[in-house]
Amino acid sequence: MRGLHLFRCRGIAVRVHLSWFPALALLTWSLATDIFPELAPELVGPAAFITGLCGALLFFLCLLLHEAGHCLVSLRCGIPVHSITLSCIGGVAEIAHEPRRPRDEAWIALAGPLVSLVLGIVCLTLAFLFESQNALFPALLAAWVGWANLFLLLFNLLPGYPLDGGRVLRAALWARSGQIATATRVSARIGSALGIAIAGYGLWCLIFLGQAHGAGPVLVGLFLRHAARKSSRQISQNGV
Q1: Among 102, 122, 176, 239, which residue's CB has the most CB atoms within a 10 Å radius?
Q2: How many domains does the chain divide into?
Q3: CA 174 to chain centre
Q4: Beta-bridge partners for 13
């Protein structure tokens, strides 16, 4: 996935895909006009959009740190990392090759959720401290980012490839059978089914509930299904 180059850290290029900009705008709009005003009715006008933009930027920063967790463990396992790209569907880390052992696969997959867990706890702790000092807007912002990280943690642990939970499942099946191809196909089928379910939920929100934020699950679900099917095809084409 190509994108605009931002900087390089430890040899890893950090980029933003062009699709990231409308995603940033959409999340900012949703936070400023729907989520934050519902939680804090006094948050209106420019202050709502500034807070929404801060929330969106912090969320994508957390996504970047999530991917950085994967990358650091990948490097420790001797697998070079080429880049991290932020896009409309989150973050994607491009590694040089697949892990050669199930154990490495599992540790790399779990590193991202562990980062999200730590970020969620830290942000919720800050929210409590801000609230105790009557700093309501920083408390609101920290609380939302904290819960968003915990949601990201739970979502990524769903057992469908290429989500982190799907990679852990693939590692377990690989370790049991000794066949990475079979493990990939099984976890990818589950990932494809999850993608259809998530996209279906988004369509339900769009069509029957009239909720514009249903577009997000549709996009994520379709991407998940596409990525899962692509992984299965690559395994078949390689004749593994």
Answers
A1: 102
A2: 2
A3: 24
A4: 8, 83
Distance from C-alpha of 116 to C-alpha of 148, rounded to nearest angstrom: 9
With 50 as the cut, is the pLDDT of residue 157 above it?
A: yes
Query: Residue with structure tokens 């895909």?
Result: 17
Same domain, 18 and 87: yes
Helix (H) or strand (E) holding 23: helix 20-30
By annotation, the residues acting in catalysis are 67
Mean of all residue pLDDT scores within the chain: 90
Asked if residue 151 and residue 221 are part of one domain, the reply reads no
pLDDT digits (tens, 9 = 90+) for 10-60: 889 999 988 899 889 988 998 998 889 888 888 888 889 999 999 999 999
Does residue 150 sit in the same domain as residue 69?
A: yes
Domain of residue 29, residue span: 1-156
Q: Are residues 66 and 182 in the same domain?
A: no
Residue 4 burial (CB count, 10 A): 12
